[in-house]
Design brief:
Shape: globular
CATH architecture: 3-Layer(aba) Sandwich
Structural class: alpha/beta
CATH topology: Rossmann fold
CATH superfamily: NagB/RpiA/CoA transferase-like
CATH class: Alpha Beta
Helix content: 25-40%
Bound molecules: ligand FFO, adenosine-5'-triphosphate
Strand content: 15-25%
Length: 222
């Protein structure tokens, strides 16, 4: 019998892990969302963040609503992903406030309506919390299969690698005043962890993953 291809394996894992998170009860979802918020408050990587991209919960994903309320209460600017209207497969990050008018995208996920002055360029964000379907012990991320985050964040990941190189400032001749690239942090239920994911060349591994109970730092792998 033929071995399954990487794409087949990834699709099968995607199905399994989507079912797994969708089978959580409403009570379990609410508990997880509250625990995530309490956990967030203890995390050193979020200290000083002023502009944070996050997501509108869909498909059994870890709910971000209590966290978003908390970010607003701290006067931290919140941004949500919006499907790019011209560049297929890319995301824009648009300001989300209590007054935002929302519209469902092609996948039924609510997005703030797109107004140019409300877009935050990716490099001006401090943290990007990404949704994910499954993650493994190295920080590899399996998403919904559209490649949106992989495409949009490809240059951020390359830049972060550069910045962790001690000779970066000399090589690129940039002043230390230049803002760092945003920190990429995956958000997930604990049950979304697996041992090892089959990866593809375009996958962007995550340096950090936060669950309601655990904080993973994968920067030593990068
Ligand atoms: N909450 C949230 N927002 C997000 C993402 C995400 O994963 N979660 N995305 C992360 O990239 C982008 C949207 N990507 C998505 C890709 C596929 C499907 C989806 O439901 N696919 C259906 C098939 C739909 C169709 O073919 O029309 C499916 O697989 O059942 C949803 C979102 C941007 N916003
Ligand atoms: N940087 C990129 N440039 C061009 N195509 C890409 C890039 N990243 C991903 N893709 C394409 O997107 C498709 C889906 O990729 P993948 O299965 O890794 O998505 P995903 O990480 O699960 O989804 P998402 O990031 O939207 O949550 C692949 O067919 C791949 O060819």
């Amino acid at each position: 019998m033929l071995e399954p291809t990487t794409t087949q394996l990834r699709n099968s894992l995607r199905q399994t892990f989507r079912e797994r998170r969708k089978s959580l009860s409403l009570g379990e979802q609410q508990e997880a969302a509250e625990a995530l918020l309490e956990h967030y408050k203890t995390l050193p990587i979020t200290t000083g963040a002023k502009r944070v991209a996050i997501y509108m919960t869909n498909d059994g994903e870890l709910s971000t609503l209590p966290l978003i309320d908390f970010l607003w209460s701290q006067n931290i600017e919140v941004y949500l992903p919006v499907l790019h209207p011209f560049c297929d497969g890319y995301l824009l990050f648009v300001s989300y406030t209590k007054d935002s008018l929302m519209l469902a995208n092609n996948f039924g996920i609510l997005e703030p309506i797109l107004e140019c002055h409300k877009i935050c360029p990716v490099l001006e964000l401090d943290i990007i919390f990404t949704p994910l379907v499954a993650f493994d012990e190295k920080g590899n991320r399996l998403g919904m299969g559209g490649g949106f985050y992989d495409r949009t964040l490809e240059f951020v990941s390359k830049r972060n690698k550069c910045e962790s190189n001690p000779s970066f400032n000399k090589m690129a001749d940039v002043s230390t005043q230049q803002k760092n690239a945003p920190t990429l942090v995956g958000l997930a239920h604990d049950i979304q962890q697996c041992l090892s994911l089959p990866t593809e060349a375009w996958d962007i591994p995550l340096p950090y993953i936060v669950t309601p109970t655990r904080f993973f730092n994968f920067t030593h792998n990068m």
